[in-house]
Amino acid sequence: MASDFGDAALWLAFLTAIFAAAAALVGTRGDRRWVDSSRYAVYSFCALMVICVVVMEHAFLTDDFSFNVVATHSSIETPTFYKFTAMWSSQEGSLLLWAFILSIVSTISLAATRHKLRDLVPWATAVMMGIAVFFTGLMLLGGDVNPFTTISPIPADGTGLNPLLQHPSMIIHPPMLYTGYVSLTVPFAFAIGALISRRVDAAWIKSTRGFALIAWTFLSIGIILGARWSYTELGWGGYWAWDPVENASVMPWLITTAYIHSIMVQEKRGMLKVWNVSLIVASFSLALLGTFLVRSGVLQSIHAFGDSTVGPYFLSLIGVVLIGSTWLIISRLDILRSDRRIDSLASRESVFLINNLLLIALCAVVFWGTFFPLISEFLTGTRSTLAAPWFDRYTTPVAVILVLFTGIGPMMSWRRISWEGAKRVFTVPLIAAGIAFVLLLLFTDAANSIWALLIFTLAAFTVTALIQETWRAAAARKKSVGGSIFASIWSNATRNRRRYGGYVVHLGLVVLLVGIAASSSFETKQDIELKPGQSAVVDDYKVTYVHPTLTRTEQALVFGAELQVDRNGKSFARLNPTRQYHQITDGTGSPGIASYFEGEATSEVGLKAGMRSDFWTSVEPNTKEFQRRARMADGLFGAFMRQKVLPVVQKNPSRAEAVSAAATDLLSLTTDKVIAGYKKDNLEVPVTIRVIVSPMVSWIWVGAIIAIIGALFAAWPSGLLKRSRGRKKTA
Amino acid sequence: MIVVWFLILLVFVGTFVSMPFWRGRAASSTEDPEIAALEAARESKYREIRDAEMDRESGKLSEEDFAELDAELRREAVDILDRLEALKGKES
C-alpha cells in the first residue's frame, strides 16, 4: 500500500536525520569524510521527504481514503486544486510540510557551503538535523500525528475540506509562512555553529544572509496574504484582528527585520555581535513559538488546529533552543566583544541600534498582548484577553517612530555625519514634511487623527529622503559616465542591490503604513437593515437593496443580496455579497436540508476597490423563514422515507444502494423546490448589510508588493545574470 | 510491507551516505577559515569604500570628510590584503 511506502520513507528519514547529526558531530574532530557523509545524509533526507510529500499528495489527488488525513480533510467533491492544498490544512500534513521545507533549505545551504566554513558547517548541520529529528520524530512518535496513519474500514467518501480554507489565499498562505519560519533555521544553525566553533567573524553572516532575507520575504508574503484573506473572506471587514496566530507570525518578522539591519553593522564595522546572535536566536525561537501556537490550543485562534498532543513537545524544543543558545552566548561573550565602538550618535550604526530597540519594543508589546490570557490566568487565576484597541494603543506610537527612522536610516552615513552633511541631506525632506503637514491640515480631515497625521507627514519625509538619495547618486554617476538619469539609477541599483533593494523595501513599508493609518483612522462602518427596494446613505454613497439571491452549489446554500451603489447620482457599483451555508458531510449532521445550517458559514464580500477607497459590503441574511420551510420539507421527506421507502428496503435489502441513490436525488430535487418556492414568493424579508467605506486600503496591498519586490531585488545574487551569460559564451 | 520498503530505501540511502568512505577520492577540501574570514572582511571593506563614495555623491559627506574616511578605509583594506597575502604565502 502507498501508506506503507510513505511510512517507511518517513521512518528512514527520521533515522537518516539522526545519522546526519551524529556524523556531523564526529566530523567536528577533523575527519572530512564524516562531514561529507553527513552532508550526503542531508541530501538523502531531502529525497526521502520528497517521497513522503509525493505519496501524501498522490493520496489526496486520487481520493485514497485509506489515509486517515485524506478521509478527514478531503472528499470526492473537493475541487482538485484544493485537494492539492488540503495536505497543509491538517496537523499531520503541516508538520510534514515543515520537515519538507527544512530538508530543502538544509540541502541548499549545505550545498552552497560545501567548500567553505570548515569549522562551522558540521555544527550547523548537527543543529539543522537536530530540528529535523524533532519534526520527523514528532510525526512518528508524538501521538496521533502520523500523516500515513490508515483507517479501516475505508470510507466511501471523506468529510471534506473546511470551506473557510477553500480560497486562493489559503493555498499559498501556509507554505509562504512555513518557508519563512523554516528558512530562519539556517542562519540560526550557522550562528550556533559560529558560537561553538568560536568563528564569530562575519563569514557566517555572509553565507546565511540570503536565507534571512528569504525568510523575511516569505514571512511578509504569508502575513500579507493572511491579511488579504481576512479582508475578503471572513466577513467582518478588517484585515488584522491581532489574532494570536497572526501575532505569532509578526513577532519573528519584526525581529528578523532588526536582524537584517543589524548584521550590516557587524559586516561593516565588526559591531553588534551579541545583538546579532541574540536576534537570530530570538527570531528562530519565535518561529517555533508560532508553530507551537497553531498546534497547542492554548490560545483561541481561527488558525488553531485545536487541542492536540504536540504542544508540550514544542514547548520543550523552544526551551532547549532558548536555554542552550543563551548559555552559548554567555560563554562566548569574550569573543563577541565589538571590534570597534560607535564613533558618533549621528551615524548609521546608531540609527540601526535605535531601530533594533524599536522593533524589539514592538515585538515585546505584541508578545505581552498575545500571551496576556496565559499570564493573567497564571497570576490571578482568571483568563483575561487584551483586544485590538489595546494593541493599537501601544503599537501605533512605535510604528510612527519607525516610519521616521525608515527615512533617517538611508540618509545617514557610516561612522559619522557632520553637521554640514546633515544639513545637506535633511533640509529637503524636512521641507517636504512641513509642506505635507500644512496641506493635510488645510485640505483634509487628517487632523482628526493625530497618529494618522503624523504618519502621513513622516511618510512625506521618508519618501522625499529616498528619492533624494537615489537622485543625487544617479546625478553623480551621470556626471561621470554620461547617459540618462534613469540609466544611472538602474546602473547604481544593480551595482548596489542591497542598498537600493532596501530603499524599495522602505518605500513599500511606508506606503503600507500610510494605507493602514488611513483605513483604520478614517473608515466609515455602518450596519443597515434593508428590505428589497429600500435604500440607505452611507458616507457619500446611496446603497439600494435590489433583490435577494439564493442559489445552491454542490455543498452549500448561497444567500445573497444584489446591491446597487450610487455616488453623486451616478452608478458606482453593482455588488452581490453572499453568505454560504455549508452542508455537514461527515455524517454527523441532521438528515435533509437542515444540515446546511449546521455546518460552517462563510462570507463572500461585495467589494469595489480603488486606490482612493474601498467600498466593502457583507450580508447577514435572515434565514428564519427559509429554515422554517426547510424543516417542514424535511419532516415530509422523512415521513415519506419511513412510511414508503424503508419498508421496501427492509423487504429487499439488495435494493438498498439503489434506493439510497434515488433518495439522495429526491432530496436534491426537494431542496431545489424549496428554493424555487421561496424565491417565487418574493417575501420582503429584511437583511442586515454591513457597509464599510475604507480609505486607501489598496495602498496596503500595493505597499506590500513594493516591499516584496525590493526584498527580492536585494536578495538576487549580484552578477548572476552576467556569470550565466559568460558561461553560455564560453560553452 | 513497511519493512520491505524500508529496506529497499535503506540500500539506496546507505550506499549514498557511505560514499565518502569508499570512493577512494580525497574528501572535499575547504578553504582555510582564517583566509575565509579575511576574504569576507576584504569584501566588506570594498563595500565600505564604495558606500563612502556613494555617501559623498549624495551629499552626506563633504570632500574633506570623504578624503579622511576614504584614506582610513583604504589603510584598513591594505592591512587586510597584507594579512591575506601573508596567510596565503604561508599556505603555498
Termini of chain B, distance in Å? 57 Å
The CATH topology assignment of the largest domain in chain A is Four Helix Bundle (Hemerythrin (Met), subunit A)
Mean pLDDT of chain A: 88
Number of helices of chain A: 22
State the CATH architecture of the largest domain in chain A.
Up-down Bundle
Of all protein chain pairs, which has the greatest interface, and how many residues does each chain bring to it? A-B, 60 and 44 residues
* Rg of chain A (CA only): 29 Å
Strand content of chain B: under 5%
**Global outline of chain B:** elongated
Provide a descriptive summary of the structure in words.
The complex is a heterodimer of chains A (731) and B (92). Chain A has helices at 2-27, 32-61, 68-73, 80-85, 91-112, 121-141, 168-183, 185-196, 203-233, 244-269, 273-296, 311-331, 348-380, 388-411, 419-443, 450-481, 485-495, 497-521, 624-651, 656-681, 698-715, 720-730, and strands at 524-530, 535-538, 541-552, 556-567, 570-575, 578-582, 601-604, 606-608, 613-620, 687-695. Chain A is built from 22 helices and ten strands. Chain A folds into four domains: 1-166; 167-345, Four Helix Bundle (Hemerythrin (Met), subunit A) (Up-down Bundle), CATH 1.20.120; 409-522 and 701-730, no CATH class; 525-696, no CATH class. With 92 residues, chain B is mainly α. The longest helix of chain B is centred in the last third of the chain and has 29 residues, at 63-91. Chain B contains three helices and no strands. Chains A and B meet through helix 1, helix 2, helix 15 and helix 16 of A and helix 1 and helix 2 of B.
Outline of this structure?
The complex is a heterodimer of chains A (731) and B (92). Chain A is of the alpha+beta class and 731 residues long.
Descriptive key words:
heterodimer, A: 731 residues, Four Helix Bundle (Hemerythrin (Met), subunit A), 4 domains, B: 92 residues, mainly alpha
Describe the secondary-structure layout.
The complex is a heterodimer of chains A (about 725) and B (about 90).
Chain A: H1 2-27, H2 32-61, H3 68-73, H4 80-85, H5 91-112, H6 121-141, H7 168-183, H8 185-196, H9 203-233, H10 244-269, H11 273-296, H12 311-331, H13 348-380, H14 388-411, H15 419-443, H16 450-481, H17 485-495, H18 497-521, E1 524-530, E2 535-538, E3 541-552, E4 556-567, E5 570-575, E6 578-582, E7 601-604, E8 606-608, E9 613-620, H19 624-651, H20 656-681, E10 687-695, H21 698-715, H22 720-730
Helix pairs in contact in A: 1-2, 1-6, 2-5, 2-6, 5-6, 5-7, 6-8, 7-9, 8-9, 8-11, 9-10, 9-21, 10-11, 10-13, 11-12, 13-14, 14-16, 14-18, 15-16, 16-17, 16-18, 17-18, 18-21, 19-20
Chain B: H1 2-22, H2 33-57, H3 63-91
Helix pairs in contact in B: 2-3
